[in-house]
C-alpha cells in the first residue's frame, strides 16, 4: 500500500524519545516527551487523512520477516485507526497533566509514558499474532511501574492485584495462540481471521481469549483490580488506563474472538450478555455509594464497558459500531473526568467527595467542563456518550430484549450516581476555607480539557467523521460472522394490513438481525 | 426561516453562557431576549400561514447525524401545522418569560447564566417539536431535561434545589428508558426511525405480535406503551409525577416556561405527533386514557389542600396535563392540542402572576400569610383573575368565554362522545375541583384581611434584612414548609395565623413583569374564542391540521351531539366550585379548618400527596443505596477479592513464604513468564 513506513515511524519516535528522556534533566524530559507525543499526534492525523474508508481492508501495511514465521508485520484497518487516534490524542494531554503533578524521577516517568505509547500503537497496528502478544502484554509493564512507583499510598497492593488478574488470562491466551498458529499454519492475523477453526475447538479457544480480554475490559466479576488501580495511579496514569488500556479488551474481542471464532461467539453470547447486564446494574449501584471520586468513576467505567460488550456480541451493525463509539467516547470522557478529578486533587490533595462542595462558586470554568463531561458520561444526546450507547443498546435489543432492558436501566443509574457526584462536588455552599481558596483552571489545565471537550461535542453532533472509517470493516466483519448470527427474541409477525412488499421486509428483518 | 427560529436561541445561549459575567448583565439579557423576540416574530407568520391554509408542510434538512446501516438519522427541521402550534406557544411564552425575568431576577448576581439556560431550553424544546425522526426528538427531549435540571438547581447553594434538580432528571430518565426501548423496538419492526415513514407503515402492522421480555404481545401496543412511558415521565403523569411539584424550587419564571407551558406538554405533543400509530393500537390508547384520567383526578385532589401558592399551580398543571392525555386517549387529538395551547397561556399567566405576588410579598410563598392583596397589587390581581377565569372555564354556552371554557369543555364532550362516560365524568368532577382550588388560591391571596404579620419573610423585610436577601436572590429562604410542600402541623388552620400587615407595604411589580402579564391575559381571554374553529371543529380541523395529527371528523361531529347536560356540566362544575370556595374562604372564616378536621384522614392523605414520595423512597431510593453498599462490601471485597486475588496471594505467600519477593518482584516475574512463553512460541513457530 504505502511505501513510507509511517506506522514504524509512529512507533520509533516515542521509542527513541523514551530512551532520550532517561538521559535528560527533568525539565528537558518533559519537553522531549511533549514534543514526541505531539509529533505522533500529527502523524496520527496524517494517517487519518490518508486512510481511504473505501479502500482495502488493511492499509499502511509493512512486512519485514524476522525469523521463521515471525514477522514485523504492521497494518491497520478502520478499528485500529480509530483506536490509534485515541491513543495519540490522549498522550500529549497525559504529558501535560503530569507537568507539575510529578516531581520525583521525572525522566523515568516520561520514559514510561512514551513506552506505553509505543506499545499501545503497536498493539493496534500489529498484524502478526505474536507481535500483537508482545505489545499487548508488555503494554502493562510500564503501567505497573507508573502505578507502583508514582502511585498513591497503597500502590503496591493495587499493581499486584492488577498483575495477578492479568497473569492467568495471558497464559491461557498464549497457549491458545500457539494452538492456532499450529493449526492454521500462519501467524499472520488477516490469515487467521479468514481461517475456519473447528467448531469444537473454537469454544476452548474463545474461552482462553475471553480469560484475557474479560480482565482487560474489565468485565464483572474480574473487575476489582480496576478501582484500586485507578485510585492509586497518578492522574495521567488513570487517563491512559481508562482511555486506552481498557480498550484493549474490546479490541481483542473485535479482532480475535468474533472473526476467528464466530460459532463460539454466538454460542457464548448468553455469557457475555449475562455478565454485562449484571455489571451495568451491580457496578452502577456500587458507584452510587462511593465516597472516593476516582473509585466512583472507575466503577462507572465497568458499567460503560459492559455496554461495549453487549454491542459487540449483538452481531449487527448498530451494535458493533455503537460499541466502537462507546470505546472512543469512554476513552475521552472518563479520561477527561479523571483529569477533572486531578485538577481539584492538585488543589486540595484529597479524593474524598465529602471534603468538596460549592466548587462551582469558586471555579466556574472548571464547573462548566466538569458538567459537560458528566453529561457526556450520562449519555446526553449531543455528546459522544449518547451516540455509542444508543447504537449499542439498539443493537443488543435486536438480539435480546431482556439484555437491552436491563442494560438500559444504566441510563437511570448512571444519571443518579453522576449527578449525585456533581452535586456533592460542585453545588451547595462553599464547604470550607480551603475550598474557597481554590483558584479556577490555569491556562495549562484549560488546554488539557478544552480539546477533549471539543472532540466530545464533535463526536456527539457529527459522529460521521468517526464512523466512516470503520463502516466497511464492520461490513466485512458482519459478512464473516453472518453464518453464526443468533436469532433475536422479538420476531415480529407481519401485520394484517401490510402490503405484500412490506410484509416481506419486516418478516425478513426479524430473522436477519 | 425555521433555522433562524431554532438556532438563534442557541446562538444567544452560547454567547450569554460563555460570556457570562465578562459580558455583563445587560448585554447578556438583551441578546437572549432579543433573539427570542425575533424567533417569536418569525413563528407567528408560520402559524397564521397554516391557519389560513397558505403554508405547506416541509422539512428543512440541516446535516447528517448518525448513519448506521439502515438507521439513517439526520438533523432536520420539520414544519407542519402541529409544529407551528408548538412554535408559537414556545417562542411566545419564552420571549415573555425572558422579558419578565428582567424584573424578577434583577437582584440576582448570576443573571447571564440564568438567561443562557432559558435560551438553551428554548432551543432544545424547538428541536424537539421540529424533529422529523424519533432520535432528534429524543435529543430535544433530553436537552429540555438538561435545561430543566440546570434551572431547577439554578440556586445551587440551596440543598433543596439540588435535590429537586436531581430528582427531576432521574425520574425523567425512568421515562426515557421506555422512550429508548420504544425507539429500539420501532427500528426493529419498521427498519426506520423517521416519523413519517413509521406513521405510514404503522396501520399495516395491526394484528402483528412481538416478543418482549419473554412475553408475546401486540406489536403496536408494546411500542406505543413504551413510548408512552417516556411521555409519562416528561409530562409528570401519575407514577412519574413526583418530580414536578419539587421542580418549583426553581425560579418562578422557570416554572412558568418549563413546568407549565412547554416542556411538560412534550409528552402530549409526542402522543399527538405519533397519533396515527396510537390510533392503530387501541389497547395503548385505553392505557393513555386511564392514566390521563387518574392523573387528572389525583393531582386535583392534592391541589385542593396545598398551602404553597406555586405548589397549588404545579398540581393544577399536572391535573390539566391529565386532561390533555385522556383527550388524546379517546382520540380527540385536536382537543388535546387545543387545551395544550390555551393552557400554555393561562397557566404561564397564573405562574407569572404568582411570581408577581411572591415578588410583592418578599419571597413569601405560603398563602396562609397572604390575604387582602387585591388593593395593594391591583394589576397582578386582575391578571390572576383573568387566569382563574380561563382555567376554570368561565363562559356562557352558545355565547363565548375565556380560553379554558372552549378547550376543557371540548375534552369532556369528546370523552362522552367516544363512549368513555366514566372518564367524561371524572373530567366533570375535576372541573369542579379545579374551580375550587383556583378560587381558593385567589380568595386566600387577594381577599379577606392581611395575614402578613406571621410571615418570616415579611418580618425580615420590615426589620431591614432586605439587603442580605437581595444578595441571595429570590425564593432563597425557603421555609421548611415550602421545602416539604406541606404544613408541619396541619391542625393549625388559617385562623391561628396572626393577622395584620406588620407595617409592610407590598408594591406592584415593575413594567417588565407587568407587560408579559398583560400579553398573556390577552391570550387567556381570546385564545379559545379565536382558534377553536381551527383546532377542534369538524369544518376547520381537517383543513388546519392537514394530516399532522389523526384528526377525527367523526368525533368532532359527535362532540356536538352530546346531551345538553354534558355540555353544561363544566360550567355547572365551575360555578359550584366557585360557590364552595366562596362559602369556605370568604363567608365563613373557619369552615376550611373545620372541614379539614372532619375529614382528617382524607385531608392528610391529600396534603401528603398520597404518600408517593415516602413510598418511592422506601421502594427505590433506600434499596438502591443499600444494594450498592452490599455489592461493594459483600460482593467485591468479601467475595470476589477474598477468593480471587487475595486468596491467590495467601496461597502464594503460604507456599513460598516470599511475600516480599512477590510484591517487589512481580514485574520481573511477569516479564519472565512472558519471556518463557515467547521463547516457547517462537521455537514452536520456527519448528512448525
TrEMBL record, chain A:
<feature type="transmembrane region" description="Helical">
    <location>
        <begin position="400"/>
        <end position="422"/>
    </location>
</feature>
<feature type="transmembrane region" description="Helical">
    <location>
        <begin position="201"/>
        <end position="219"/>
    </location>
</feature>
<feature type="transmembrane region" description="Helical">
    <location>
        <begin position="231"/>
        <end position="248"/>
    </location>
</feature>
<feature type="transmembrane region" description="Helical">
    <location>
        <begin position="296"/>
        <end position="316"/>
    </location>
</feature>
<feature type="region of interest" description="Disordered">
    <location>
        <begin position="484"/>
        <end position="513"/>
    </location>
</feature>
<feature type="transmembrane region" description="Helical">
    <location>
        <begin position="322"/>
        <end position="345"/>
    </location>
</feature>
<feature type="transmembrane region" description="Helical">
    <location>
        <begin position="357"/>
        <end position="380"/>
    </location>
</feature>
<feature type="transmembrane region" description="Helical">
    <location>
        <begin position="6"/>
        <end position="24"/>
    </location>
</feature>
<feature type="transmembrane region" description="Helical">
    <location>
        <begin position="446"/>
        <end position="463"/>
    </location>
</feature>
<dbReference type="InterPro" id="IPR010227">
    <property type="entry name" value="NADH_Q_OxRdtase_chainM/4"/>
</dbReference>
<feature type="domain" description="NADH:quinone oxidoreductase/Mrp antiporter transmembrane">
    <location>
        <begin position="126"/>
        <end position="411"/>
    </location>
</feature>
<comment type="similarity">
    <text>Belongs to the complex I subunit 4 family.</text>
</comment>
<feature type="transmembrane region" description="Helical">
    <location>
        <begin position="268"/>
        <end position="289"/>
    </location>
</feature>
<keyword id="KW-1133">Transmembrane helix</keyword>
<dbReference type="InterPro" id="IPR003918">
    <property type="entry name" value="NADH_UbQ_OxRdtase"/>
</dbReference>
<feature type="transmembrane region" description="Helical">
    <location>
        <begin position="109"/>
        <end position="126"/>
    </location>
</feature>
<dbReference type="Pfam" id="PF00361">
    <property type="entry name" value="Proton_antipo_M"/>
</dbReference>
<feature type="transmembrane region" description="Helical">
    <location>
        <begin position="71"/>
        <end position="97"/>
    </location>
</feature>
<keyword id="KW-0472">Membrane</keyword>
<dbReference type="GO" id="GO:0016020">
    <property type="term" value="C:membrane"/>
</dbReference>
<protein>
    <submittedName>
        <fullName>NADH-quinone oxidoreductase subunit M</fullName>
    </submittedName>
</protein>
<dbReference type="InterPro" id="IPR001750">
    <property type="entry name" value="ND/Mrp_TM"/>
</dbReference>
Automatic annotation (TrEMBL), chain B:
<feature type="transmembrane region" description="Helical">
    <location>
        <begin position="81"/>
        <end position="102"/>
    </location>
</feature>
<dbReference type="InterPro" id="IPR001750">
    <property type="entry name" value="ND/Mrp_TM"/>
</dbReference>
<feature type="transmembrane region" description="Helical">
    <location>
        <begin position="312"/>
        <end position="334"/>
    </location>
</feature>
<keyword id="KW-0813">Transport</keyword>
<feature type="region of interest" description="Disordered">
    <location>
        <begin position="463"/>
        <end position="502"/>
    </location>
</feature>
<dbReference type="InterPro" id="IPR010934">
    <property type="entry name" value="NADH_DH_su5_C"/>
</dbReference>
<dbReference type="Pfam" id="PF00662">
    <property type="entry name" value="Proton_antipo_N"/>
</dbReference>
<keyword id="KW-0679">Respiratory chain</keyword>
<protein>
    <recommendedName>
        <fullName>NADH-ubiquinone oxidoreductase chain 5</fullName>
        <ecNumber>7.1.1.2</ecNumber>
    </recommendedName>
</protein>
<feature type="transmembrane region" description="Helical">
    <location>
        <begin position="667"/>
        <end position="687"/>
    </location>
</feature>
<feature type="transmembrane region" description="Helical">
    <location>
        <begin position="514"/>
        <end position="536"/>
    </location>
</feature>
<feature type="transmembrane region" description="Helical">
    <location>
        <begin position="35"/>
        <end position="55"/>
    </location>
</feature>
<keyword id="KW-1133">Transmembrane helix</keyword>
<dbReference type="GO" id="GO:0042773">
    <property type="term" value="P:ATP synthesis coupled electron transport"/>
</dbReference>
<feature type="transmembrane region" description="Helical">
    <location>
        <begin position="137"/>
        <end position="157"/>
    </location>
</feature>
<feature type="transmembrane region" description="Helical">
    <location>
        <begin position="283"/>
        <end position="305"/>
    </location>
</feature>
<feature type="compositionally biased region" description="Basic and acidic residues">
    <location>
        <begin position="466"/>
        <end position="498"/>
    </location>
</feature>
<feature type="domain" description="NADH-Ubiquinone oxidoreductase (complex I) chain 5 N-terminal">
    <location>
        <begin position="65"/>
        <end position="115"/>
    </location>
</feature>
<keyword id="KW-0830">Ubiquinone</keyword>
<keyword id="KW-0520">NAD</keyword>
<dbReference type="GO" id="GO:0015990">
    <property type="term" value="P:electron transport coupled proton transport"/>
</dbReference>
<keyword id="KW-1278">Translocase</keyword>
